[in-house]
Each structure stands twice: as structure tokens, then as C-alpha cells.
Amino acid sequence: MPPPPALSALSRPQLEALLVDLLGEVATLKQTVAELREEIARLKGLKGRPNIKPSGMDKGTAPAKPTENEKRPGRGKVTPRVNVEETVINAEIPPGSRFKGYQSFLVQYLVISVRATRYQRERWVTPDGRTILAPLPEGIDGHFGPELRRFVLMQYHQGQSTMPRLLALLRSMGIAISKRQLVRLLNENHEGFVAEAQDVLRAGLETSPWVSVDDTGARHAGKNGFCTQIGNEWFTWFRTRSSKSRLNFLDLLLAGHTDYMLNDAAYDYMRNQGLPAATIARLKAEPETRFSDQTAWQAHLDRLGFNALRVTPEPVRVATEGALWGSVQAHEFLCEAVVLSDDAGQFNVGRHALCWVHAERLVHELETFTDQHRTARTRVRSLIWDLYADLKAYQLNPGKRRASMLRARFDRIFLRRTGFATLDRLLARLHANKDELLMVLERPQIPLHTNGSENDIRCHVTRRKVSAGTRSDIGRDCRDAFLSLLKTCDKLGIAIWDYLGSRFKIAGYAIVEPLDHYVRMRIRPA
Predict the structure, then answer these.
(1) Separation between Cα atoms, residue 293 and residue 242, nearest integer Å
(2) Quick one: which of 455, 359, 361, 452 has its CA closest to 53?
(3) Is 88 part of a structural domain of the chain?
(4) pLDDT tens-place string over residues 149-183
(5) Rounded distance, CA 460 to CA 217, Å?
(6) d(CA 18, CA 16)
(7) Do 436 and 458 fall into the same domain?
């Protein structure tokens, strides 16, 4: 914009026109500044919550709720899980009254009390000079009793309390405890819980017909990282790492194993990722096919000269991913299972299925500029909703003929030309994912969306908002393990209070088997 002439020489209409131009330019600059600030925040890792409104497709295609005239099921009787004590209350009655039984009135109490016990342990010296010290009662491990340890873990992980608030609560109840002691209660001597969470993952990967996966941001040791969720309707497992690459995901699928395997599954993976046949032949020519850990595997690649290759795709990365996938299959994890994700590239391994809600959201969030564009988008969304509703119905009553009809209908929707170029490109991209979006036609038992994963990972997001992040590796592992066990207990119908009581062997505790037992057997405890 050229500099204006002397303002005193301009007429009033010219001044008004100049003012309008300047205000428009200021508005444009403000918008540019706002966009740059958002980009800077994103690059710094300070991006706020995405402004994505739900499309409502899943709820919009759900069966209609019963009308007011239809009778809805009642809540039923409320029965406490504890033994109910019977107390008879006598009434003052006049002479000649007749006894007509009792009217029941149930009252539930919560008794919280603090007590301390000083154990005087006998010490004896045997004739041969040995010292014998009387053992502590079962369940005593340290200076805080099992009931207190159970309460602390419940409040912190299920109650999502912060450590300062939990510390203040315990002190207000009369517990003499320091901040360091509370941290130890939360983090130390929990190797058994971490191992049990790992066993739950192994049981789920070995026996489940499908798993749903997702990830979210997580801070550890002052750095940004990522927490990956793996689970289904029977179990949930979390793990926080500094990366969310496919190498990281494949390593998580090993469930604690560290070996690398070269087998048919590994070579198939490498071929599908575009690794040249000559490069694969180098690996096949070597007699060694199993490597105990990453160090042994990298040494093998160095001997074959893989690190010196500068081609695309990167041979070291693809070969390592293939060897990890070969190990996953060798341990019989995810052999026939489907991995359901939101189309994040790191999760695209094995038999892969995509979330319909995320796919439809791309159409829902598509920017439109004219009435013609809005009409085209509305029409396509309507067709997708109808197809989604019929896929739900197919899950209840699958059949080959219906599957064939749904595939043909998918083609008609996603190969159509609407006249809106951006929408047409998006539909073509979604059509390229046909096999993954229609995996439900082969496996009717898998969900059509990843809502389960998003619901599971919400507890980790809440923990992140409440406590920011973790500092020590053991604190990170304990947080992930207890959140995993908490969600798994909830899915299995086990009260986390009973679970912790069983693990700490609190008097009168209910017996809870290792959780991987319930996952393998697909049964809920009585």
C-alpha cells in the first residue's frame, strides 16, 4: 500500500476510505499474529486443546431410546458388598398390640480411624551365638500398615489426588508421615504390581481377537514424551516412552521380551515396506536368526554393512522393525488379532483396522466456502452415516451376501465425484483405506471406533493435568502400572479396594487371582 498524501489535503470521504483500508489491514495483521503465535506454541510443545467438535455419528446411528410410554427398567435394589449386621430396634407399644414383623431400613457406614501399634519383638540368643528375632505379623512391610498403604494407592491413583493434598489429608487424620515417606509408599517395593501389569499385557496379546490402541502426551524427567495405550473390553495397559515411533510400538508389543527374530513374518514385513529383495537376501544368507537384545542385533547389521547404506527406505529402520515384528509373532502375540487405531502411522502393523469416527471426522471438519460445497459435504456425511448404521446392524447379523453389498456401497460413496475438489480428494484417500475400514466385514466382533481407547486413556490425561509429570523412572513405571491395573480391574468387575486388599493380605481380604488369569479365561470373578 503506497504512503498516503498529506492528510490535510484529503477530503472527508477520502479520509473515511483510508480509515477503512487501514482497519482492514490491521485485522489481517492481527489474524496473522494469532496464527504465528499458535505455530510457535505448537513448535514449543505448548499447543492447547484442539477445537474439534464431535460429529455425533456414533450416537446418531444408535438405536432409538424407549419413549415415555415404554416402561424403563428400574435401578433395582442397592446391595452393599460387605456383610450386613442385623440390629433389632424395639418399639414402645401400648398393651394389647399385635406383632406384625419388621420393617427393614438399611444404613451404610464408613469408619475411618487411625491407630498405631508398637510391636515388642522378642530377641533371643541361642547357645551357638545366633540371634533370633520374632517375625512381624503377615502383611507388615515397613512402618506403615497394609491398610494405610492400600488407602494411599487408592486415593492417589483412583481418586486422582495430588501428593501434597494426600499428604495434608493423612496428616490431618493423625498420621505422622513426611513427603519423602509418602513418595516411597507410592513408588517403592511395587515390582510385583509392575510385573502383574506386564503379565496382563501378555495375556491380552496372546488371547484377544483384537486390540485397540491410542497415545497421548506425557511428561517425564522434564521432557515431553508419549503414553501408549493398548487394550480392549477385557484389559488395559499403559506405557510411557520418549518416542511414539513404530519402532517404539513394536517394542511395546514384545511385552518385556528383548529379542529380535528373522523369520517369515519378519521378511514379509520388510517386503511390504519396500525393502529391496537384494537387501533381504543378505539377511537370509546368514545362519543366525535370533538375537538376544538390541546390541546383538545392531552388531549383526554392522557386519552386513547395513549402516553404510544410504537408500530409501532406510534399511536399518525397516530391517529392525521387521525383526521386532518377527519376534512379536514368534512369541505368539497378535497372531490373528486385529489392531484397531485412529490412522496414526505407527500403529499400522499386522492386520490393521481403522476407526470410522476419525474417518468421518475428516469430512465433518472439512472447510467449505460456498453453498455448493456445504451441500456436497452434507450429502456425503449423510451417506456415511447410513453406511455406518448398516455396518452396526451387520455386526449383529453378519453374512457373505450382506458383506458384498456393503463393499459395493462403500465404493459408490467414496468413488463419487461431488464437484468439490477438496472433498473428492479426501474421499479418494479414504477409499484407499477400504480394507482397513471394512475389516469389520471379516471380523464382526471388532468395534467400529476407538472410543474405548480414548475412554481408557482419559485417566492418564487426568493424571497428567493433576500432577504434570513424573521425575524418576520408577515413579513413571508405577504410575503406568497402577493405572493399567485399575482400568483392568474395572473391566473385569473387580473392586480395586478388594484387589489391593488381596495383594497386601489385609485381614478378611477377598481372594483375587492374578489378573492375567481372568483375561486368559475371559471370565469375571464371582
Answers:
(1) 20
(2) 361
(3) no
(4) 999 999 999 999 999 999 999 999 999 999 999 99
(5) 9
(6) 5
(7) no
Total structural domains within the chain: 3
In this structure, how many other beta carbons lie within 10 angstroms of the beta carbon of residue 241? 18
Rounded mean pLDDT of 223-244? 96
pTM reported for the whole predicted model:
0.83
Phi, then psi, of 290 in degrees rounded to 5: -125, 135
Domain that holds residue 157: 142-196+454-521
pLDDT-above-70 percentage for the chain: 93
Whether residue 313 has a cis bond before it, omega within 30° of 0: yes
Give the whole-angstrom CA distance, residue 238 versus residue 256: 13
What is residue 82's predicted lDDT score, i.e. its pLDDT? 80
CB contact set of 378 (below 8 Å; sequence gap of 6+) = none
Q: Residues 6 or more apart from 439 whose CB is under 8 A from it? A: 338, 351, 352, 353, 354, 446
Locate all alpha helices (DSSP H) within 337-399, ordered by sequence.
Answer: 356-364, 371-396
Looking at residue 160, its pLDDT comes to 93
Q: What is the pLDDT of residue 73?
A: 65
- Looking at 449, 480, 504, which one is the last position of a domain? 449
434 lies in a domain?
yes
Give the side-chain half-sphere CA count within 13 A for 154: 14
pLDDT tens by residue, 329-340: 999 999 999 999
Angle between helix 264-272 and helix 277-285 axes, rounded to 10 deg: 160
DSSP 142: S
- CB 177, CB 170: distance < 8 Å: yes
